[in-house]
Amino acid sequence: MTAEQTKQDMRNANTLLRRRIDAMQRLVATDIAQGLASRQGERWNAARNLSKALDDADCNIDQQVDGWLEENGWDLRSAYKTPAGLAARTDSWWPKPDITADVPEPVRRVITERLADMLLDRSDDWHAEQARRFAFALKAEGADLTGAIEKRITALTLGPDPSDPPF
Question: pTM for this structure?
Answer without folding.
Answer: 0.48
